[in-house]
Each structure stands twice: as structure tokens, then as C-alpha cells.
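Quick one, T. Sequence first:
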Amino acid sequence: MKVRTAAAAAGEIWLGGLHVRRMGFGAMRVCGPGVWGPPRDRAAALRVFRRAIELGVNFFDTADSYGPHVDEQLIAEALHPYPEGLVIATKGGLVRPNRNAWDPDGRPEHLRHALDGSLRRLRLECIDLYQLHAPDPRVPFADSVGALADMQRAGKIRHIGVSNVSLEELEAARRVATIVSVQNEYNLGERTSEDVLAACQQLGIAFLPWYPLGAGAMLRSARVKSVAKRHGVSAAQVALAWLLARSPMMLPIPGTASLEHLEENVAAAALQIPAPELAAL
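C-alpha cells:
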């Protein structure tokens, strides 16, 4: 069935001076199994990226660690030269010595090297939104964020974001640079970042919930399934609609390698769930 709604139905949000639709696309899942190596079907992966554009998505989230490097290369292969208004966000600060490892590396010299690699793979002269992927406990947090601020002043980064941070770390980052986005895990079943979300809403900072559909157990819960059945939609669509309704600063970035699931996710942009049902979730 063709999906006739578009990402625009979710409304829009400001990322610094960038205006994007509130239904984004997380590109991570397009890589090979375990977010390692190339996709099994490269042509199908490219079609997913292009279909997201057709559905009105104009915010893509990726990272140099996805693949590693594969995801950024695929985005450029599928979409370059980029359509007007497309905002590509990438991240640096995690390294993948093997398929099971996600190791923090927040050293300024590593972040400078990582950014240059992302610019090359994405075929860009400036990254719209560059995010520190995670704090590195071995490196002073201000030094990592400061490296991004230096690269922003050099014209390689338009806006800066942080990911996987506590409220205290967000406040520390804001003392070093202007932060326009936070990307933390958040979904129906994982809400430990409520304080960070509240701060983002108060400060006008976009909140990008990673793992927006959460664990499968949550999507199979009786409450979610009941709401989905009542509205004739999927549990995943209910979970995404709940996120959109949760805060005007919320920018979900569901990811998938499936055209069918992509269209299903974007259709959630138009789903309006009554307030009592939202509260029950």
C-alpha cells in the first residue's frame, strides 16, 4: 500500500538556523548486520535513502562509526548532489576496532581526524550538525566539546550537538559552545533522560531520541497494542506518534533498511492520538 502522508505532517523544528521536519531518518540500520560492513543489498539500501527523500524527510542522522564509514559513503552515493534543504547530521567520538566494540575516543586530535573523514565521505565542505557521539571518561569533556567549537570556528561545522549525555554534561557543553541538539536514548520504555528532555524544551534545544522504538517487548505491550488496534495502525506508529506528542523539541530518527518499514514510520507523522490515550501510555 502506498503511503500518502509525508514527513511534513509532523511539523518542523529549528536546529540552530536550520529548519527541518520533525520526522527524521536514522541511517544506521542500512549498514550490514551489527552495523558492521556494507549492506547485503547495496541497491536496496540506496533505494531506502532515496525513498526517504521522496516521503519528505529532510533530516538524516549518521555517524562515522556506522560501518564504520560505510553509512556516510552510502548517503553520498545515494543522494549527492544533495537536494536543497537536506540536513545531514553525523557524529564522531566512537571507534569500532571490531564489530562488537563501540569505544569512546574524545581526544581532540581524534575528533579533528574524524571530522575530516566525514567531510570527505559525505562530499561536503561543512557538516550541518556535528555531534560528539559520547563522552570519553579518559578525556576532559570540555576538551572534546572545545575541539568541536574550534572546528566550527574553522568553518567545518555549522552547528554542534552532543549525544549520550547527562544533564550535568549538557550544562558543561553549553559553557564551551552553543549546543543545538542532544541525542540520547529515549522511548516508551526508556525515559531516564526526562531531565535532559525537560532542559532541552526549556532551552529550545532539539532532542533526538535514539532507539525511538525501544525494545520489542514494549511494542508488544497490551497498552500499545490496544491503542494501535483502536486506530488501525502499527505499534511502531503509536510509539513514534507518542514521541512527537511528548515534546515540541522532539525529533525522532527511526531507522530501517526496509522500504515497507520506512513508509510505515513516516506515516506516523500524521497520526494524532487523543490526549487520554497518550497519558495512558
